[in-house]
Amino acid sequence: MIPPRLVVLSRRGEDALLPEHWTEIRQFAHTTAVRTDTAPDPDAAARLLADADLLGATNLCLPRIDADLLDALPRLRGIVLYATGYDHLDVRLLRSRGVGLSVLPDYATTAVAEHCLAMLLSLATRLHLANDRSRDRVGPGVSLRGVELAGRTLGIVGVGRIGGAVARRARALGMDVIGTDPDPGAVSRARADGFSMVEPERLLDHAHAVAVCANHSHGAAPLLGRAELAGMRPGALLVNVARSALVDTEAAVEYVRSGRLRGYAVDDTVLDPDRHTDVLAEGRVLQTGHSAWWRDETLDRGARMWGERLLAAVRGRPGDAVTWPGRTGGPCDGRTEALGGRAGSSAREVTPEVVV
After folding, report:
1. Cβ neighbours of residue 230 under 8 Å, at least 6 residues apart?
2. Mapping DSSP to helix (H, G, I), strand (E, B) and coil, where does residue 222 land?
3. Long-range Cβ contact pairs of 61-66 (< 8 A, separation 24 or more)
4. Which residues of 3-28 are buried (b: 16+ CB within 10 A; e: fewer)?
5. Which pTM value belongs to this model?
6. What percent of the chain has pLDDT over 70?
7. Alpha helix (H) ranges present in 7-90?
8. Which residues partner with 81 through β-bridges?
9. Cα separation of the two ends of the chain
């Protein structure tokens, strides 16, 4: 049997994986590690991957995977992505071309769950504004008045890995927790953990704070559009630790301005400094620039898990496969944690990273 050819694209090149993983991988595959600061353009990608059976890539270094590139890469049979989210990839296209996709669904769960609570606490306490005021970055007219979270209800949209972790931490803060999710398995696990599961409309109407922890699908509409946001409890806090496009940003800003929402936090940078100057200056919209996953432990865990997934792929036993030739289903296959059974939002741009 001819060993597969694996090409790995990363800012750190060969240093992105542990040496022991390279030793094992090279027992089963011919390997090429490419150090690159950006994703290669289509022509460069076609050259780099011309003989590749498998591609390993971080999000920053992943070329645009479209029909034209796949036409130029008839040998490609699998992608092992250093990421949890894959909404920027057209899974249907990959499946139709017989190209597999393997991801790392667990490597950043703790970090993202903690970040979600940090954003919620910041909105509730106005901590970020207290810091800015002490440094003369905001005027004395900006209010630092907040609310206590203990005794209030947190509604979680999407109670999978991250949503479940957020729920457990919120309960430790003294919050009541309710959730919604169209996935029967997620609902069953949440109930087994003692969390109440409700219909989406009841969650939005009842919760003092809503945390969006759902997956979303390539090309789908927001989970929380104008109508859903209008159904939220007046004065509620909204935190989106998932993809920014899961929430209609313009509608959220409108409701923050009107006072219907007390605040909105999103782990991205989506507001326009000119058009949204007021809510940014007042701190009622908090942006954290997709930094939820950026932790020492997460980077160590991610390097280890990526090496394990690459080794599994070259051995023909892909782990955490969203789709893979010759396989039916998988732990991530096509499942979307959505509000009311709707798919998630349109694809988000690939996210930046620094060291992998």
Report:
1. 255, 260
2. coil
3. 61/9, 61/10, 61/11, 61/34, 61/36, 62/9, 62/350, 63/9, 63/39, 64/39, 65/89, 65/90, 65/93, 65/94, 66/90, 66/93
4. ebbbbbbbbbeeebbeeebbebbeeb
5. 0.87
6. 91
7. 19-25, 42-48, 67-72
8. 57
9. 31
For residue 1, the SS3 value is: coil
pLDDT tens across 316-332, in order? 999 999 999 986 544 44
Tens of pLDDT, residue by residue over 128-143, are 988 888 888 888 878 8
**Biggest alpha carbon–alpha carbon distance for the chain:** 72
Length of the chain measured in residues: 356
Give the CA distances from residue 143 to residues 28, 140, 201, 328, in Å, rounded to whole numbers and listed in that order: 61, 8, 31, 54
Q: What is the mean pLDDT of the chain?
A: 90
Summarised one tens digit per residue, pLDDT across range 287-310 is 999 999 999 999 999 999 999 999
**Residue 5, helix vs strand vs coil:** strand
Pairing of strands 54-58, 78-82: parallel
Q: Which are the contacts of 301, defined by CB distance < 8 A and separation ≥ 6?
A: 107, 108
Summarised one tens digit per residue, pLDDT across range 165-193 is: 999 999 999 999 999 999 999 999 999 99
What lies within 8 Å, CB to CB, of 288 at 6+ separation is 115, 119, 265, 266, 267, 268
Read off the tokens for 336. Answer: 């979307």
Q: Answer yes or no: are the C-beta atoms of 50 and 74 closer than 8 Å.
A: no
Phi-psi region of 354 (alpha: psi -120 to 50; beta: other; left: phi over 0): alpha
**What Cα–Cα distance (Å) separates residue 24 from each residue in 29, 175, 270, 309?**
9, 47, 42, 12
